[in-house]
Amino acid sequence: MRISASKSTDLNPGHVSRVRMSEDEQVDFKNLPNLLTEWKKIQEDKQKLIEERKKVAERIREQDKRAEAMQGMILKIMKSNSIGALDLKSSNARALYKKRVIKSTIGQKDLKKHLAEHFKSDDEAKKLLEFLDTKRDTTVKEKLVYEKNPTE
């Protein structure tokens, strides 16, 4: 891997000149090819692991579908026979019938609709939503991306 340390100057945009570096910067610059090589290996290994994870995730989805179908049949039988719990002696456990109510999330559109209803004014609701949006935390994330060139 070969890297050159050159920058274009603002005075002559077409002219390229060498940049003077401190001793620490020179050491860092000499380490750059090794760092890039190691980083590239890590990125490739990570890609292989991601592929493996996809395969495992697919197997998990298949198992979830089978378990969900069985759960539906079991719950239907438990409901129809008013059974709240089943003792599973082979695994020293219990299968319980539980029911709970879960509220849905409130999206931006629903929030605006409900606020407009509460304030009896679309303008007030819009102002409140804009205020809340300005108070949201923001973060800036920087990263180096590894893209492998497609083979022809």
Would you summarize the structure shown here?
This protein is mainly α and 152 residues long. The chain contains three helices and four strands.
Topology overview:
Layout: E1 6-8, E2 16-18, H1 23-80, E3 85-88, E4 93-96, H2 108-119, H3 122-134
Helix pairs in contact: 2-3
Question: Explain this structure to me?
Answer:
55% of the residues lie in helices and 9% in strands. The protein is mainly alpha-helical and 152 residues long. It folds into 2 domains: 21-100; 101-133. A hairpin with a 7-residue loop joins strand 1 and strand 2 (16-18).
The biggest sheet, with number of strands, parallel, antiparallel or mixed sense and barrel status, is: 2 strands, antiparallel
Adjacency order of strands in the biggest sheet? 1-2
| First-residue to last-residue Cα separation | 21 Å
**Which percent range fits the helix content?**
40-55%
Low-confidence regions: 4-16
The number of distinct helices, counting runs of at least 4 residues, comes to: 3
Over the alpha carbons, how many angstroms does the gyration radius reach?
30 Å
Which range does the strand content fall in? 5-15%
Tell me, briefly, the overall form.
flat
What is the H/E string? EEHEEHH
Structural class: mainly alpha
State the main characteristics.
152 residues; 9% strand; mainly alpha; two-stranded antiparallel ribbon; two-stranded antiparallel sheet; flat; 3 helices
